[in-house]
Amino acid sequence: MDKKIISAAGFFGMTAVILGAFGAHALKKLLTIDQLTSFETGVKYQMYHALFLLFLGLSSQISYKIKKTIFILIVSGIVCFSGSIYLLSTTAITNVNFKSIGFITPIGGLLLIVAWGILMIHFLKKKA
């Protein structure tokens, strides 16, 4: 499981850097300031959670069951939260109206919050 988690961390970290560079260079001329800011928010949260996955995969203090749960929540959260932000913020250049998927963004955010909450509860319950 750790190999899978760390590999996912590498993938999401790498694609966050690629998308960040793409936003800073190619999209800078095509998107409004608000759209670019939104895109950058998706990139930031993707990178934050790639680092969370790296921590998760390297930690020996978290059980397999908890790791698996957090892993599923984080991957789903990144795809829903950051993925929907990428699509919604680039609507002007894709000419595809993604507004109908806007409800996915807060669901993704909630998945990320729940993952952090599970981590917090896991460590609060741990005996010293």
Number of strands: 0
Number of helices: 5
What percentage of residues falls in helices of 4 or more residues?
A: over 70%
N-C termini distance: 25 Å
List low-confidence stretches. none
Largest sheet data:
none
Average pLDDT: 94
Molecular shape: elongated
The quaternary state of the protein chains shown equals single chain
Order of helices and strands: HHHHH
Structural class category: mainly alpha
- Beta content comes to under 5%
Instruction: Report the C-alpha radius of gyration, rounded.
Output: 16 Å
Structure description:
This protein has helices at 2-25, 33-58, 64-89, 91-94, 104-125. By secondary structure, the protein is an all-alpha fold. The two termini are 25 Å apart. The mean pLDDT is 94.
Q: Topology of this protein?
A:
Elements: H1 2-25, H2 33-58, H3 64-89, H4 91-94, H5 104-125
Helix pairs in contact: 1-2, 2-3, 3-5
Q: How would you summarize this macromolecular structure in one to three sentences?
A:
The chain is an all-alpha fold and 128 residues long. The protein contains 5 helices and no strands.
Question: What are the main properties of this structure?
Answer:
single chain; 128 residues; mainly alpha
